[in-house]
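Re: weekly structure request thread

Next one in the queue (634 aa):
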Amino acid sequence: MHLRISNPPPKPLMIWDGECHFCKRWIERWREITGGKVDYATYQDAAHRFPEIPVEQFKRAVALIEPTGEVFFAAEAVHRSLGYRSSRKWLAWSYDHIPGFAAISETAYKFIARHRSLGSAVTRLLWGKDVRPPTFFWARRWFLRALGLTYLIAFVSLWVQVDGLIGGDGMSPLNQFLPAVRAQLGRDGYALLPTLCWFDSSNTFLHFLCGGGVVLSLLLIFGIAPAISLAALFIFYLSLTIAGQTFLNFQWDVLLLETGFLSIFFAPWRLWPKDLMWRPGSTPPATAAPVSRAGLFLLKFLLFKLILMSGVVKLTSGDDSWGWLNHSFHWSALTALDYHYWSQPLPTMFGWWADKSPEWFKHFSVAFCLAVEIVVPFLIWAPRRPRLIAAGLMIFLQLAIAITGNYCFFNLLTIALCLLLIDDASIGRKHATVRDRRYSDQLCSYAAIAVIVVTLPINAWLIFSAFKPRARPPHALANLYEQLEALRIVNGYGLLRVMTKDGCEIVLEGSAEGVEWLPYEFKWKPGDVKRAPGWCAPHQPRLDWQMWFAALERPQQNPWLVGLIVRLLQGSDDVSRLLAHNPFPERPPRYIRAMFYRYRFTTVSELRQNGTWWKRQQLREYLPTVSLDQLRQP
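Done, posted below.
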């Protein structure tokens, strides 16, 4: 129904039923979206001004009266009113040009208009009392602080190990690695391995990068120049990640880099953003930097990709312990946690106790994990209440993982991303409308949109590859991914896709004369059977982690292991500091060998009787006895 009236208002006017609770809630949302470009009035107050329109028509549907005198009703009125917001112009265009769009819109509108009580109940169920577009000032504030804390932990954790890992007297010396790369690849090495360490690969410069990262992390935590701090943090940590070689090749390292890079487009581009320091419970100041919707989308999509891929790859990996057996799901096959607690890299004491839980509870826990990782991520895009449920479930899962295993800062970083699902209204913060939009804010939003355009096709393919592991990407997409891969800004994920079902450990032993052998004790990985599993997270003892991976492979696949043995035979203090106990403190041993053991948790009764947390069985020799003279031979 189209009309034209003789006394149009000076601004577009939306007239609605003031007695309809459903209408009242959604008018608040539309008023926020249109931002003063459309006026709103109830028909009880305004119907008398427009006698050409029957009152019964106002009761049936909303009406939009344009300054030209044209009148639109129902779904068309909604679409055209929202079209006064530039980002919603597509609604009116779709109504006019896309076949079926108008018919579907009007049918949906009629159904809701006839069942307003149902619509109001569904609205309360999904959104709560406030259906206005959510704001995320609180989320941005605490996400950036949590990200700064994660960076701080990552830099400090690496700082205390960097000399022994990649220092001049470490296992994989950086000052030998980079020259070898330059000799082999020439100038291409700079693009393939983008690191500031090309300028200086000394221990001093490595300490400068770690120390600089600590300072920048503190600036981010306190909200000082957050965007600039994030850009510098990304460069510093990327440089260390490249320099760290295999020791910094973990999924949480690339996750931190991708999160840090995307956060540059989410953080305020101001020296001292007032909204990062505003008093809790009050409305953020009108001069606060607006929250970039594009930047928020990038980070929420990263969370979606991370969690969804982590779940899907478990089912497509071919490992039947995740319940997928003979192309169908079986409850009895959910056996992953029968192995996980004692076969994971660095078990915790809580993992020891979790391993004693009933079989049915372990199966339930596996099913819960899969449900959270495969189903719940889709609620990230849902209205407020389902979105908050998703945040709660994902945070709970991360806490459970963190308690039972030492996964460094991975859980903290994932929880930080989950904070972005919590809008201001959901925690009682006052709704804010920011009026101070600067050129830098617009430029940052445009940059975020550009990042979306470039990375979204790659991310879509990475997610698809989790469902179809053997599929090959289009040639153009593969080339684009290859160009960006060195920067670690778009990555695939899939932690624990294949469950390790045998807890094997390498035990290094040294001897002065080749008769009596003394073990080197590591700080966190299983060794002495009477030592309780420790809890080191969010710190990552990177040597201990690499020893776990080495046990899954042959010695030839881990050249750094030879570097470790050489440094122990040389008596390197930098490497010895990475160990809990050096049995040769005065003089390094003449010989070193590596033995292969199978480790299992003890039972409760064995712990009480013998005080042992582990029981182990020697399997074979992992690495034969070597001396420094033998290793020096060509």
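Residues 3-127 form a domain with the Glutaredoxin fold (CATH 3.40.30). The first helix runs from residue 21 to 34.
Next request, please.
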